[in-house]
Amino acid sequence: MMRGRVVMKYAVVTGASKGLGASIAERVLQEHFGLISISRNENPALKQLALENGLFYKHITCDLTNSRDAKHAFSTVVETICSSTDNEVLLVNNAGVVEPIDTVGSLDHEAIEMSLQLNVAAPMIATNLFLQKANGTKLTIVNVTSGAAERPVHGWSVYCSTKAALNMFTKTVAVEQNHSGHATIIGYSPGIMDTDMQGVIRSSTEHSFQEVNKFIAYKENGMLRSTKVVADALIDLLLTEEVENGKIYSVNNLLK
User: Fold this and answer.
1) Quick check: 7 pLDDT over 80?
2) What pLDDT is recorded for position 4?
3) Can 159 be counted among the known catalytic residues?
């Protein structure tokens, strides 16, 4: 009797050391995906969870604001898990930064470049490399975006612009894949969560960011969702629904 092919499932999560990335990584391990985490620091709890469940685990230490390091990291990952058409791969481009928070005319040029590299260039590089080497691998790509991509926010010109660019990239790749490809790519807007990024936002001055008091109130009034709730909403979507290629999904709609 011929045995059926064994399908190996892998998840690649950037920024998996903490926050939403860590919660997504934990959930995919619970769903028996092998995990490759890419971030500046390793999360020991993820390694332990993978070990306890006998799952593939690899951490790549990388500062994704460095273009050369990002290319090397993603190339290493692709060679590791995209060699077989029997594999299923989930790539979650989660790592991002809200800074610089300030009005145009007062922005730090180096901070602009770092934001563009992390929020836009790194997901583009990752997506490009995975599509180059996928070799028929079933590939799903999730780009973590923001509602700020859809509206101008005082003090967030760089953040809004990078997330808008990421959304358009996502939609364009989907058009190409619908025409002649095999990958599914979506955006995911996670809303307001209790993360370090929110702490950075709340530490802004009102001069730099007019809505700072509203974000302080979110925290004080317990309005910030846990990263676990937001991560579960994403993975539940991917595992139970046929997602629409190129769509930007919002957690606010998924949790209604």
Assistant:
1) no
2) 47
3) yes
Amino acid identity, residue 253? N
Residue (of 138, 112, 146, 125) closest to 14 by Cα position: 125
Mark out the alpha helices in the chain (DSSP H runs). Answer: 19-30, 44-52, 67-81, 109-116, 122-133, 157-180, 196-202, 212-220, 227-240, 251-254
Global pTM reads: 0.95
CA–CA separation, 8 vs 56, rounded Å? 10
DSSP designation for 121: I
Q: Which of 10, 57, 159, 249 is catalytic?
A: 159
The reported pLDDT for the residue numbered 85 is 61
What are the tens digits of pLDDT across the range 34-66?
999 999 999 999 999 999 999 999 999 999 999
Q: 256: helix, coil or strand? A: coil
3-state secondary structure 34-89: EEEEEECCCCHHHHHHHHHCCCCEEEEECCCCCHHHHHHHHHHHHHHHCCCCCCEE
Are the beta carbons of 166 and 149 closer than 8 angstroms?
yes
Q: What tokens were used for 80? A: 């590791």
